[in-house]
Amino acid sequence: MNEIELIITQMKSLFLHQILEVRFLPLHETVVRIKPTTLRNLVAWLLEHSGFHHLSTITGLDNGQQIELFYHFWNGQGLSLHTELSYEFPFMDTITDLIPGASFYEREVFEMLGVRFSDSQQNQPLLLPDDWDGQHFPLRAKEKETKKQGEQ
Predict the structure, then answer these.
(1) Domains in the chain: ranges and CATH
(2) pTM of structure
(3) For the chain, does the N or the C end have fewer beta carbons within 10 angstroms?
């Protein structure tokens, strides 16, 4: 059993019923789909027990029905935590107290997709104009459709 398989086995035993799927991808990448409520505790466990300390980024995707988030970690190989949020009220616990650098990524995901993070203290736009209304999120599928219809 290699190192990542051992970590996944430990995760499955500790976070029983919270890990929904594990995919081993080519080029040393593993994706673990989890329940949203598990993320914070799982990140804390990873930082303490796995050697995965480097959060490369958080990426988000609007698939038209849900908002998907991927937390990408690196330790000589990739480990991504994947979760899906309700489209109507996308909300996640923050991990900025565990990984301070996650603040930038969380702010970006909020501005682009409208995901709200607990304990978020950032009120000023990071990437969008200073007069942004905080209601329209550029990477939301519905925003893109509305913009396309307005251009026709």
Answers:
(1) 22-142 (3.30.460.80)
(2) 0.89
(3) C
